[in-house]
Amino acid sequence: MSNGSTKIRIYEVGPRDGLQNEKELIATKQKVELVNLLSDVGFEKIEVTSFVSPKWVPQMADATEVLSAINRNANVTYAALTPNMKGFEKAIEANVEEVAIFGSASETFSQKNINCSIKESLDRFLPVVKAGLAANVPVRAYVSCVAGCPYEGDISPDAVKLVAEQLLEMGCYEVSLGDTIGKGTPELISKMLEAVLKTVPDSQLAGHYHDTNGRALDNVQASLEYGVTTYDSAVGGLGGCPYAPGAKGNLSTKPLAEMLHAEGYSTGLDMKKLQKAEDYLAQNIANNN
Ligand code: HMG
Ligand code: MG
Hints:
Blueprint: E1 9-12, H1 14-18, H2 28-39, E2 45-50, H3 63-69, E3 77-81, H4 85-93, E4 98-104, H5 107-114, H6 118-134, E5 139-144, H7 157-170, E6 174-179, H8 186-196, E7 205-209, H9 216-225, E8 230-233, H10 253-262, H11 271-286
Parallel strand pairs: 1-8, 2-3, 3-4, 4-5, 5-6, 6-7
Helix pairs in contact: 2-3, 2-11, 6-7, 7-8, 8-9
The structure holds 3-hydroxy-3-methylglutaryl-coenzyme A and magnesium ion (MG).
């Protein structure tokens, strides 16, 4: 239980990590409206979209259009995924304010997700990080499969540590630890954090826990014990299960904030405005699919 003074940063990733899983193409104007509603909630950062190959993720093909149409709140940093220099250049043209590279602790997932080995991915990320630093654009990094891989099964905590260290050494300001398929339990997450924290300070870590098995909140609880104060979540629990906001996908922002508030942490989120964004999602985007 917090003493009431600890601020937890909730990084809203729904427009990207949630919507990317929706099979039916969502109209750009609906994505824009969702981001606009989220912009009033009090998030410091919103991950809006991805500059990835439209052949790989057709849902994110309108990244430039979404970023140019949203009403930007000066208190919000608008971020996007950029797996390589091509994506980074497009993101900068679209005036993105933060970028994220995304690696993996699993070789097979790396191949399946970004078509290269872990080593090749780090080689591709380095120029992106350098260009970000040169342009004064903060670079965040993800490590996927921190508690297990859909192809390889168990992943060693040291594999997570190795990738996280290298991403931070390059100049990323934070590593978000992705339990991509929600296999994590408090025990697994604790073991993984113990390994990573040997060389990475808690202030440079975030928890990105998918809720496939309903354990994401428990995994946040475990991570709070290790001093992690940033967590990624998605409005309406979008993601994972297409067409069904509220179904188990990403950790849902509302229950995360409610749990943290009940324990005395502050998040800065306006729960009524968050509800408004959830309602919009349920009434418009979910119903269209
Ligand atoms: P590739 O085929 O190896 O790339 O894909 P390439 O460099 O050989 O280029 C092939 C084609 O893609 C070319 O076009 C390029 O121009 C184009 P063509 O000549 O065939 O017409 N291309 C691009 N187009 C737009 N934007 C780009 C870009 N780069 C190349 N940036 C690549 C490599 C990484 C591009 C591909 O594998 C890809 O796009 N993967 C997307 C993967 C993805 O978005 N996954 C979901 C996000 S990760 C995630 O959800 C996990 C996370 O939430 C954390 C967690 O939960 O664990 C972050
Ligand atoms: Mg994710």
